[in-house]
Amino acid sequence: MNTQFKKGALELCVLSQLTRGDKYGYELTERISVEMSIAGGTLYPILRKLKEDDYVTTYLVESESGPARKYYRLTDKGRQYQRNVQQEWEEFIKAVNELIWN
Amino acid sequence: MTKSEYMEALQKKLECFNRELQQEIVEDYEQHFAEGIAAGKTEEEIVAELGSIEDMIQELSEEDLRQNGAETRGQKEDSEDNVCAEEDSQSNIYSGEYKAVVIDGAVGDVNIEQSDNGQIYIEYQNNGSKEYRFYQYEEDGVFYAGIRRDKGASAKEAKRAVKIMLFGKTLNVDLDNPLDFGKTFAGVWNSSGGVTLNVRIPAEMPRLEVKTVSGDINVRNVTPEQLNINSTSGDIEIRHVTVDRLRLNATSGDITANRISSSDVDVCVTSGDVELDDADVGTFHLQTASGDFSGNYMRGNRMTVGTGSGDVEFDGCFERYSIRTGSGDVDLRAEAGAKEIRVGTGSGDVELNLTALESTEVTVSTGSGEATIYSAGDVRHQVTRGTSTVGSGDCKVHVSTGSGDAEVRRK
User: Fold this and answer.
1) Which domains does chain A have, with CATH numbers?
2) pLDDT tens figures, B272-289
3) Best mutation site among B11, B55, B59, B167 for testing chain A: the one with the most A CBs within 10 Å?
4) Do the chains contact at B31 and A69, CB–CB below 8 Å?
5) In terms of C-beta distances under 8 Å and separation of at least 24 residues, what long-range contacts does B131-137 make, across chains too?
6) Surface of A (23-82) touching B: CB under 8 A
7) Which of A80, B224, B307, B377 minimizes the number of CB atoms within 10 Å of its CB?
8) What are the residue boundaries of the structural domains of chain B, listed by start?
9) Mind listing the pLDDT tens digit for each residue in B336-369?
């Protein structure tokens, strides 16, 4: 898949996954990797930015696998943002399809 | 490439970014490796999954690049919510089988809700009460968490360094330079501001106890078998609560409860007022000294209410009612299904509204208070003292007053 496509959409994918519940970084990369090949590491700067913008908060949970897991939780602001981006995305897809097919 | 080679390359590439960012990304990657190894992957596989470091670097913002070292510090000190900010907060999650959860908010407010899985979530916020700290421990299968006074906080020596237990690790905080330690821990030592505990507990918790001294308590959407709430001056508010046994105690705090379902409810306050709305209860017992009680849309078998000087206003559908006050007035509206109604006051006035009564026995006695009983049915034999028969005939009303007037009449 074209990397330029993925770059823009990754943030929306992360936000959308978080609407279904809190997740930690590894869990997110695993989930997204099922659908498309990504460089897993790129998710961490995205998550960091979402946190800086107050779209997500983080909390640590002890883990048997090693260091504490950092969970990401969507804030109300993040939820609203996800809805907006999703809507923009849908409009964009519609416009592209329109231009491809007609 | 092995993990150590990859991490070395990562750290080198991150050098031009600020320290806080470097640390965070490295920690994220460490965690990622740990998860991958635990899942049975090889280091090489994980390295391949994480992908090109350059790709990741491209995602980092320009802001992160600029904010470097001392410059960051200078900028941040000017803003409100900076590293120096007088703020302490943490979020913790606990999993395990507990027979009870005990939350003590002390001076802080406590908000309790249900968690959507079997875990206990606690969010602690302290906006600057430096003498208070969060604690958590377990004993005999009971989970304890809350806020307590930090004994060392007022002493001068505490100004130097303090140990904090977090996630099972002991951390040393240099108080003279909390900047180095980061925002999360820096705020323990501040003055003025509120303390809050936001707690989420599993649905199937056998027992929940919540107490505060001056903090307010807010509990909603929980279903423990037993719920005990205690406050001294803090207000208690509960909503959408389904429990077997409910115990509410307050000294001067008010109690508000809404949409309660419980087979056994016991409420005890001293000077606080109690307001209950929309409750399905088996037995209901309430005792106040000077506090007023107002109950609306309440259904159940038996209710017993006693107050000293507090007024009672009650609208419900019970089989048995018993209300006693000293100087408090009583205003009772009993819906269909009542078998026995007993109201006694000292100097308080009594007003009873009886609707759709079939075979109800009503006994009203006052000292100096007036008694007025309104009946939906015909009053066959009207008296001011003694027995009066209303409605179909099975319903008997006994009224006795000392010096107060008494009246039984059709509404």
Assistant:
1) 3-101 (1.10.10.10)
2) 899 999 999 999 999 998
3) B59
4) yes
5) B132/B106, B132/B107, B132/B108, B132/B195, B133/B188, B134/B88, B134/B90, B134/B197, B136/B92, B136/B94
6) 24-26, 29, 33, 38-42, 44-49, 57-71
7) A80
8) 3-78, 83-219, 254-411
9) 788 899 999 988 899 998 876 667 888 888 888 8
